Amino acid sequence: MAGKILIVDDVATNRIVLKVKLASACYDTLQAANGTEALRLAHAERPDLILLDVQLPDMNGIAVCAALKADPATRAIPVVMVSTFRDPASKLRALRAGADEFLSKPLDEVVLLARMRSLLRARETEEELRLRDTTSRELGFAEVADSFDAPATIALVAARRDVALSWKRDLAPHLQDRLLVLDREDVLAETLTGTGQAAPDLFLLAADLALPGEGLRLMSELRSRSATRHAAICIALPPLAPETAAMALDLGASDVIAATACPEETALRLRCQIRRKRQADRLRAQVADGLRMAVIDPLTGLYNRRYALPHLARIAERAQQTGRHFALMLLDLDRFKLVNDGWGHAAGDAVLVEVAERLRSNLRAVDLVARLGGEEFLVAMPDTRLETGRETAERLRRVIEERPVTLPFGQGMVPVTVSIGLAIGGGPRNAIAPVDELMCRADHALLGSKAEGRNLVTISRPAA
Ligand code: GH3
Ligand code: MG
């Protein structure tokens, strides 16, 4: 995975050393020698990640980071801050300013590259979700950012219970979230990760549990389960374990946190991961919503043609496998144009909505009701023989006819009727007709109902 990395450092040799290292890992680089130039390049070039020195000649690197994170155009770019000093206070300030990581020089190349891969991967996922949902751009993320701060559930898993309890004690003053102390078995129990109960939003796992590296294996297990696949997982590292850090990141840890980190730093990192996770959850929900919108008719809430035809094919396939029958109806409102002409388009819409509701509430959950377009509807009923199909079609015709539809804006009521064509598919294996032939037969029957005076059910009888 290559990417474009902006290196911000006032010392030219530092920039060059990094450029060479990153080039050998297939990254393109841009360089800035001060904060102003960094902000300019971040805007103009939209790098995939920024390596930002804390000590800059014109402004503090932390202020640069804060400016990047405050600007919607650059907010999503991951920032790794780099400092010559091991100064816990500026580390905290950097994390508070929105930095994604804070590393001290000399940089451990293995850890740096693993961290960069992890941040770029997270960014890629987010970008992909964003792309898949075009409307989310217009809705704008920043506007709903506040709700990301609602309390979350955090599971704490250490090698020993008393260690996890001490984490809880230390973190509690810094977090509003629900902190659960669990052991490995609790985490793996179905009750926690099954569908019954909401899984924790975040797991903080010690890298080493009863066995060295067991925390990383537990992480992989959680990533493979649907209930916890999208949870944030942070790995608490034993002291001086750069290889473990790199491995954890490459295995998909959301963050790695040193054992030596102060509780406030840990809390900041956990909060950051919870916000990320919620943002991703929201995007996923929007994408799912987008998919739903693509198959739902916005006026009536019924499925549209795009959904109905493949679904009908699936019903037919199943009928073929089981040898059972299914019913297909095409329904068309009678003289609907007169409603539009007499009362206006809004009245016509109200009629369509009401008819859709009457159809839906007079069918089983397994039946499909769809609006094919205009004032034409489709009903498909699995496991249905001719007699039941005919009775149902008659019932639908009746429930439309028996009560006039109330129009909006006090326009009174309008009588509505529907013509229906019914065809039966499936049955004994040798008599299977293709779906489009069945559609044709139902359509023919519908035309028959229209020709015979409307407000009728006509049954298509196969030529045999
Ligand atoms: P028939 O009994 O032969 O089916 O006559 P009809 O008037 O129902 O059929 P026709 O095809 O002549 O007219 C259908 C009308 O449906 C024309 C169109 O303006 C209207 N229509 C289609 N979609 C919508 C819609 O979404 N809302 C409204 N209000 N009207 C629609
Ligand atoms: Mg019509």
Automatic annotation (TrEMBL):
Gene3D superfamilies associated with the record: 3.30.70.270, 3.40.50.2300
Keyword Phosphoprotein: yes
Enzyme Commission number(s) of this protein: 2.7.7.65
SUPFAM superfamilies, per database record: CheY-like, Nucleotide cyclase
GO molecular function ontology, one term from the record: diguanylate cyclase activity
Pfam families with a match to the protein in the record: GGDEF, Response_reg
InterPro entries in the record: CheY-like_superfamily (IPR011006), Diguanylate_Cyclase (IPR050469), GGDEF_dom (IPR000160), Nucleotide_cyclase (IPR029787), Rev_trsase/Diguanyl_cyclase (IPR043128), Sig_transdc_resp-reg_receiver (IPR001789)
Signal sequence residues: none
GO BP terms: cell adhesion involved in single-species biofilm formation; negative regulation of bacterial-type flagellum-dependent cell motility; phosphorelay signal transduction system
Record-level GO cellular component terms: plasma membrane
Response regulatory domain segment(s): 4-120
NCBIfam families: GGDEF
Protein name: diguanylate cyclase
Provenance organism: Frigidibacter mobilis
